[in-house]
Write a structure and sequence with these properties.
This protein is α/β, with parallel strands linked by helices and 313 residues long.
Length: 313
């Protein structure tokens, strides 16, 4: 496993991370989830990405039980705050009240005294960014959070957060977590540059396009897969995209790697990317994803990929 800094921060994370979205505490048996988490750590994964809303808190509990015997300082654990956790009018958003309450609940569910990273899971149109920035500053000074970040924020919102942090001499966001993969390249237009300008890293989610870039949909939609049970692939399972996946699979085969490893290595070609957050419902998925760490794609291979994708921003 290889490791990268988060932007200009000193902390380093595994370039292949383990995420719990749509998996732990929900669709994956708890014993298997625990086995996957422990194996990931044994194989060098040190970054585990969570959110309070994942399985409505159950993902945090599941991972918390899985890591209880692992040395805490060996791990980089993140969670997120924003989405409603109850019907209470204040149990949502990025107000000081919700952030303060949410961090306590998250720490309790995971069974830890602090988070390495705490993400604002979306921007809150009903709360001034100043309030959010200063609330995050307080959590850092209290020792409950080491670094804070944004997730799926627009460049202007990131700029405002950095400006408010500068104004109040507070800690600015250290990391952004956007969606990014071969079929969704929107961050290349301006988000990558914005983060680079502010010394922020990027920990990207959905690097395999919800499984589309594993090739498992090339012969139809398997029963029980995300394409079958969720709406996340709606509109992406097109004949054009599946043809591209088939061509990418052929290219990967010529390089003696899998298409998943090709897709992950392609993401990690950008130095601004700190890690790709992968999900794993089976140990073989985990091992395959970890195998992408350290894979370097030469210029000719990158040109071939661009010709196949045909979607350069």
């Amino acid at each position: 496993m290889e490791y990268r800094r988060i932007g200009k921060a000193g902390i380093k994370i595994s370039e292949i991370a383990l995420g719990a979205w749509l998996t732990y505490g929900r669709s994956v048996d708890e014993k298997l989830a625990e086995q996957i988490v422990k194996t990931a750590v044994e194989r060098g994964v040190n970054f585990i990405d969570l959110a309070d809303v994942y399985a409505h808190g159950e993902a945090e509990k599941t991972v918390g039980r899985a890591i209880k015997d692992i040395k805490r300082s060996d791990l980089v654990i993140s969670s997120k705050v924003f989405w409603p956790m109850s019907d209470n009018v204040n149990d949502r958003g990025l107000s000081r009240k919700h952030i303060t309450t949410s961090i306590e609940n998250t720490l309790k569910r995971i069974g830890t005294d602090y988070l390495d990273l705490y993400f604002c899971h979306r921007a809150d149109p009903e709360t001034e960014i100043e309030e959010t920035v200063r609330a995050m500053e307080d959590l850092i000074r209290q020792g409950k959070v080491l670094y804070w970040g944004t997730s799926v924020w627009e460049p202007a919102q990131i700029e405002e957060a950095a400006a408010q942090a500068y104004k109040w001499r507070a800690y600015p966001p250290a990391v952004e977590q956007p969606r990014y993969n071969m079929f969704d390249r929107h961050i290349e237009k301006d988000i990558v540059a914005t983060c680079r300008d502010h010394g922020m890293g990027l920990t990207v989610w959905s690097p395999l396009a919800q499984g589309l870039l594993t090739g498992k949909y090339n012969n139809g939609v398997p029963k029980g897969s995300r394409g079958d049970t969720t709406e996340w692939l709606k509109g992406d399972l097109t004949e054009e995209n599946l043809d591209k996946v088939a061509n990418l699979a052929d290219l990967a085969h010529s390089l003696d790697i899998t298409i998943s490893q090709l897709a992950l290595a392609w993401i990690l070609r950008l130095p601004e990317i700190s890690c790709a957050i992968t999900g794993a419902t089976k140990l073989e998925h985990l091992e395959e994803n970890i195998g992408a760490s350290g894979v370097t794609l030469d210029d000719e291979t990158l040109k071939k990929i661009e010709r196949i994708l045909g979607n350069t921003p």
